[in-house]
Request: fold
Amino acid sequence: MTPSKKNQPKTGRIPRLDKRLAQALNHPLRTEIIAILSDACASPREMADMLDEPLSNVSYHTKELLKLKCVEVVGKEQVRGAMKTRYRATTKMLLDTPDWERLGKAVRTGISINAMNEVSRRAADAMEAGTFDRRMDRTLITMKLDVDDQGWQDVNDALRVAYERIGEVEVEAAARQAEGAETFRMTASLLGYESPTQVAE
Reply:
């Protein structure tokens, strides 16, 4: 989860989710539901199985996310006499600084832990499936920097520019897919955080 900069230039392409996403993420289960639905369409039953949570809890929080317009219905079908509804996320997990500040410290920490767990899980899944190093030009970059406040802002600005461009790339790829290009799933993680000073390098 990346809080966006308060005075970020308004390009019109990075979504500002304000109170809706902040409210949605106040519950840890909703964070996990959004993470799943950001990756693929799923029904409450499927998500309950993934999360090892009661179906009633997952259904309730999915409906709350629907009310907040953080997810949408993509299909319904009859399965053994019951209606199966599949959802997908409609928002990117990006919070503006004022929205991030409105969340309590425990909630912010929980969101960050869930986000980091998601980054780790996806990387581990790719390693296990043998796709992480399948392409010779894959990217894996970790940089340790000494910066001042201005440098901190400059690095985070660069990460937001990358976020914006990556969003455009997906739209462009979808257009090429309509013309016959083959697409596949890719994960890109953008991280920028202050490191503890007393740690072995």
Notes: Residues 1-18 have pLDDT under 50 and may be disordered. The radius of gyration is 19 Å. Residues 70 and 86 are 14 Å apart (CA to CA). The first strand starts at residue 2 and ends at 4.
